[in-house]
Fold each of these.
Amino acid sequence: MFSYFFGNVNKGNNNEELVKKIVQELEDKKIEREIALKEAFMLRERAYNLAEMRESLFWTVPSGLIVSLFSIYSTFRSKNALHLTPLGPVIGYLGYQIHSAFGKKNEYILRNAALILANDSDIAMKLNPVTLEEVRERMYENKIN
């Protein structure tokens, strides 16, 4: 009898479910876009840091070589082998900077991180990007707490 006056009660329920589904899809797309945008910013930041490191080599390599030459000259002039002590740190630093700028340092770090993750499952860090399921789980955990 009331359905005659108020219409079909189930029809509103279906609309509500449809609206919830649409809102959930929009939220999923928003989260996916945020993840993609964050990854793009991270790639851009890594590229910028690499370019900055390569540009800094223009100053570090010549200055390191000049310090090394002065140390060698001072050693021959004074006959004191202690004047060669700056060569170790200078050569180590230049080697590290050159390896960082032109070597495969990032690939080496990622490979070692993958080995650590394979051997130790308790580590919370993951190399894969965040998925929607993980975001939903975290949202659910936050609602419970």
Note: The first helix runs from residue 2 to 6.
Amino acid sequence: MSITATGDLIIPLLGTPTVVGLARTLAGARLNKWNCHHISDDALLIVSELVTNAARQTPHQEIRLQVSRDTAGIVIAVWDASPEIPQARPVPEVTLDDLDAPDGSFDDNGGRGLPLVQALSRSCGVTKDPTGGKWIWARLSP
């Protein structure tokens, strides 16, 4: 883990299912240090979604979490080595019948993470890393 001179958090993590809790804890501590309590819930949900996606794309490989701030706000970014650029799927309207899914399709409820990130952030996107992989990022207002 490194903390830059400006207080930004940059940490390598292992892409496992349990890494999300650690990422949320570390990001939450940094946001608290910056007194960003007013955006903490949204920011931590974004951390959860981006870290989950990275861990699924590159299981048991290195991923990186960066939480930084500047005059324009807070940026949450997650790097993974996959060259695949995620695409937000359209989110269908959910009915009560959808919530009572049969056992065979119980886990077929993904695809809502990127639309959540888009809804909670002021801007978001993907930046290819020149050394490989990509950074998926979201900016929140200060």
Note: Residues 53 and 74 are 20 Å apart (CA to CA).
Amino acid sequence: MPTYEYQCPQCKFRFEIKLKFSDNNSPVFCTRCGAKAERLFSPVPIIFKGSGFYVTDNRREEKEAPGKGKARTGNKGESEGDSR
């Protein structure tokens, strides 16, 4: 059975309930104050297994970022005195 997370809009209490898929649309009430609770979205954890998911697997060499490295000043082949 899946576990769903709910929050009460009145007392802001958060709680989890296991429900059958057939009970998914039935209303759930707060376990503290009895008000109708709202279901929260909870992202599912993802686990990657196998090769290709680690930082060291199939890693390309990092390219030099633009702006880093040797600075260019002026155009190649022209000096400050040349103005044609």
Note: The chain is about 0% helix and 15% strand.
Amino acid sequence: MSQARATAPVARSIFLLMVSLIAWELYQGLRAGVPAPEGSWALAPVDLVFLVLLPALTAFAFTRLFLIVGQTARGTLNIYAAVSSPLAWMFWVGLGVGLIGHGIHIAGHAIQRAMPEIFEQGEFAAKIAFLDIEAGYLILGIGFFFATLAVLLAGLGAGRQISGPERLLFVLGSLATYGLVLIYLGVGGGQVIPVIAASVVLTAVSLWNMPPVEITRDPIGAFVIPGTFLAGVTLIIWTVVVGGQPTWP
């Protein structure tokens, strides 16, 4: 079997993850300013469906990518590599923690939107805001980081090299996914220092395992590193300019 045929599922799995992350981002952005629905429902039925379906699709895409890069790197998929190895522990725990963080954020955000005005300035509102932003986004970011790190360590160099339009697509997808997600977590989620640290770690791991000129030719590297690196640099510059935690204009 040729290397191109053997490693083609890596590129397809990355594309599925890219599409699911972009769809999740777009939906979150489009529904961000929508008021709470009338009646007893804290979330509109469409939100309830898509805020479960899109994260589930993203988790499936992450899982598919992790299993495929493990199979490609070893030539076969075995139970130890999939569920018992250190990288497997890192991936599955990270994925679970990330989904829990998303659930905390969604619950806190729904309660905050439905909160009567009389409570908006009180201690209870501050605790709900903490669940919505600080705790929810921090836990989501930690899970996202460890799942990404596991995929990066398992899959960097496993796929065939990419070039031309495919390489450009992966780099642009990295900016639209990892770049935007990390900047939003840093600014909107108030986690600028953890996000910068995560960007440094992921970039350093990639450079340790692969020369800089090869990173964007590798499918995993091209999808993760450009957006991650640019987000870290952007947050560092933004933090220096404002002299502290940056906020949305």
Note: The chain has nine helices and no strands.
